[in-house]
Structure formats: C-alpha cells, structure tokens
Amino acid sequence: MAAGSDPIWISVWRGRPADQESLFTFSLFQCGGGGARARKDGLSATGFPSGVAGVPAEAVETLSSLIQHRRELRPDSGGPGCYRGGLGQYTEMGCRTEEAWTVSAMVDRINHPPEGMLGGGPGVRGEFLLDGQERGQPKALLTLRPDQRVQLNLPGGGGFGDPLDRDPAMVLADVVEGYISAAGAERDYGVVIRYTGPAERMVRLPEDYRIDENATEALRSERRGHL
After folding, report:
1. With contact defined as beta carbons under 8 Å apart, do 182 and 215 qualify?
2. CA dist., res. 76 & res. 185, Å (int)
3. 147 phi/psi in degrees, rounded to 5
4. Cα–Cα dist 86/70, whole Å
5. How far apart are the C-alpha atoms of 128 and 149, rounded to whole Å?
6. At 94, phi and psi to the nearest 5?
7. What distance in Å separates the CA atoms of residue 208 and residue 197, rounded to the nearest whole number?
8. Which of 91, 142, 159, 205 lies in disulfide reach of 120, CB 3.0 to 4.6 Å?
9. Residue 58: exposed, middle, or buried by beta-carbon count in 10 A (0-12, 13-18, 19+)?
10. pLDDT in tens, 103-150
C-alpha cells in the first residue's frame, strides 16, 4: 500500500472553564487518511493499523470546555491514483474560557506529505494553524488567548497507480460524495465533470453531475501523449 498519514495525531488541551474553578485536561486522538491499496482506495480519517476510534464532538464538548467549531473530511486531500488515497480531516478548536489555555500537539506529516506508489500522487500534507496562520514548530506547549482558535488539518494518504487509469465513473462518484472537487477531477485525473443543475441550489443531487465523455477522452489522450 502507499504511504498513509502515519502516526496518530495526539493533542493535549488544558484550561479553566469560564464558569468553574477547576482546570480540565483533555487528550484528543485524531487520524488522517490511509494509503491506497493495489485494489482499493485508502481509508479516510482512520487509524491504521491501531483501530483507534474518533471521539464525537458532543463528547469533547461535554467532558471539557473545548468547542469543535469545525470537523469534516478534507476534499482533494487523498493522493490521486488508479486507487485514491484516504482523506484527512479539518478540525478547528476553541475554548469557553476567560483565561489563557494551552495545547501540546504531537503532529507529523506537516513538511513531508505521504508518498504515492507506482505512479500514484502524494496525499496533502498536514497543517497546524493558529487563527489561520501556519505555525512552523507545533511540537511545543503553546499558550493561547481565550479568543484564539486552533486548526488541526490532518494529511491524506498517498495514491496507488496512475491516476489516468482510474475509472471515470469512480471519479464521478467521488465528486458527488464531495471527496474530490470537480476541479480536482480534471486536474488530477483528466476527467471533466459538468454540473447541470441550478447554480443556486444548496443541495446538489447526484443526477445533476455528468461526465463530459468527449472532453475527458481528449484530455486523457493529450496527457498520455506527453508521457
């Protein structure tokens, strides 16, 4: 299999809730994307081979004064390939406090993304951000202001095989599910996908997406001709 996000991200949070006297300490385990396999896509936001399960946002916010403002899969984070790497995830943390609070984060794959295999592309590298700004060395005890937010964006796994060999129907399914964007489908896989529904529609239906067969064939042929 291709390289995955590797170590589980562990972050330790500490602070004092605004309405309490006692401090809280909370350890959070998070997982990125697994590497693609020879016949299967990689697993998304899954701890392999540990089997560590994710903690629901409701549990995090009940057991501490932390707030998960965002938690979702990272589109386009899985490395492109005949089989796609698993997706990482976006998370954004805040705290219900009137005092300084701290985080100590053990995060990896922020400088070197997971490699692909046999022509597969790399996954997207991880990010550790404070108020949207990347911090160069996150492996330290960081003291935060009450209004600050921390973004932990976990890496995706590497892809396996040539992305131009991926079945266009699988690419279309990934776009419908939101795993990759239409722009990513064209950029990484040479598959041109058109949305035919109303532009203002908030919920876009699967039947409103289609593969532009002629444009896809031409684009893939052009790219293969340049190899």
Report:
1. no
2. 9
3. -95, 0
4. 19
5. 11
6. -130, -175
7. 5
8. 159
9. exposed
10. 999 998 999 999 999 999 999 999 999 999 987 677 889 999 999 999
Q: How confident is the model at residue 227 (pLDDT cuts 50, 70, 90)?
A: low
What one-letter code names the amino acid at 156? G
The torsion angles phi and psi of 195, rounded to 5 degrees, stand at -100, 125
Mean pLDDT computed over every residue of the chain: 93
**10 Å Cβ neighbour count for 99?**
12
Q: Which two tokens stand for residue 130?
A: 């404070």
Identify the residue whose tokens are 């684009």. Answer: 219
Count CB atoms within 10 A of the CB of residue 76. Answer: 19
Per the DSSP assignment, residues forming a β-bridge with 30 are 9
What's the CA gap between 57 and 93, in Å, rounded? 10
Identity of the amino acid at 75: P
Instruction: For 182, list phi and psi in degrees, rounded to 5.
Output: -60, -35
pLDDT at 50 over 70: yes
| Residue 13 β-bridge partners | 26, 103
In angstroms, the Cα distances linking 35 to 77, 126, 171 are: 11, 14, 17
CA–CA distance, 156 with 5 (Å, rounded to integer): 6
Does residue 226 carry a pLDDT above 70?
no
Q: How many helices (H) and strands (E) would you count in the chain?
A: 4, 11
Q: Could you give phi then psi for residue 32, rounded to 5 degrees?
A: -95, -155
